[in-house]
Design a protein that fits this description.
The complex is a heterodimer of chains A (about 400) and B (about 90). By secondary structure, chain A is an alpha/beta fold. Chain A is built from twelve helices and 16 strands. Chain B is elongated and about 60 Å long. The chains are: A alpha/beta (about 400), B alpha+beta (about 90). Chains A and B meet through strand 9 and helix 8 of A and strand 1 of B.
Chain lengths: ~400, ~90
Amino acid sequence: MPLKALTGNESMAEAMRQINPDVVAAYPITPATEVVQIFSSFVADGLVDTEFVAVESEHSAMSACVGAAAAGARVMTSTASQGLALMHEVLYVAAGLRLPIVLCEINRSLSAPINIHCDHSDTMGSRDAGWIQIFSENVQETYDNVIQAMKIAESSRIPALVTTDGFILSHCLERIEVLEDSEVQSFIGEYKPAYSLLDIENPITVGPLDLQDYYFEHKRQEIEAMREAKKSIEKVNKEFGDRFRRRYDFFESYKLNGAEIAIVALGSTAGTAKVAIDSLREEGKKVGLLKLRVFRPFPYEKLCEVLQKFKVVAVLDRSDSMSSTGGPVFTEARSALYDLTTRPRFVNYIYGLGGREITESDIKKVANEALKISKTGKIKELVQYLGVRE
Amino acid sequence: MKKYGWKELPLGAILKGEWSTENFPTGDWRSERPVWDEEKCTDCFLCWIYCPDSSIIIKDGKVTGINYDYCKGCGICANVCPPKVKAIEMIPD
């Protein structure tokens, strides 16, 4: 397998080149600019057959993607932060029309105050839009996830977004294994759209008015599709692993065997957590990591199965849902285990907002506090804010 | 009319065929109906111009009636009909 030194952005653009979508409509925004800038040079150099639509905003970008996908095209785009927020309205349209668009999303905080660095508030803001959401720990995963997302989206007829952490991964050079163009093409296969607006022999109507009588039924279909998408994800993960020997699942269990407490994290922080856990294990401390990869659909059943044996689960959230009781990963993970008669204690750590660095010692602090709770059974504070100055 | 369940409906409300508002009669929204008087009508077409739907029927350059399948009874036609003519009157439906 060829090795390349690529940044997160370059790896996403490379995956897009190999997928060779019919249409890409995009608008530049830091730190995702490079993804479409690099891809547009692939278009200019004739390396892809893609129709590149340079639009005037992200709202237009997603609108053009919806139009192209409804016409039966294989469609991709990329954005970050405010750009994803501006797409928000149209994200629901893509999901509601069941268009398998793939979005390369670079996690970045939302204004105000203005900040261009990494956190997950942009992606979590579109949590309920009906898109599959896959998080990446490193550049290799970013690349692999984009390729898998195309197949997952098309087989489940739900749009998918793959995230990579702004600057931490988007601008970080890593050595990764890339696939041959032919391998990517044979893996994703030919796209057969369910319908096409351009098929004048078989006319269709897209986006009719759907009032009290039928809207609910169509949303029920979407909910069911998200449940069914779990099967698609499993199937695609397995096929990817069998073919290319890199295994993926809804989440990764890292040293959870024999652990007393578990840390839950997603994105690049999982890498830092692994280093911290290795070091803690050397000290004889029984700690492990559950790295959540697929956040939508949320893998309730599997998560419950794996986490139920722990005394304490510490959830790391790189965004706060402003509910006054913690972040989105915390509330969902805790809810997943609620029905158990004996269940772990949960604590939440909000961290890294606006790109605030998270270090090995931060994770060790979390682990040590969780071990203390495990021993004493006492939680001083349910939600804490890692590294925030008082 | 049978109401379909979510398992029976086309995904994403994508409908096969060329559907248009023609397939969606809106006449039952009406609480008042316009009654047109052929004798009084001068064929000025003001009602036809102002009708927000296309419920004023024109044939061979003349007004010939009102399409009650789509007329929602807004009363604009009766309102724009010149006061000296008064060819359209709104009555309870």
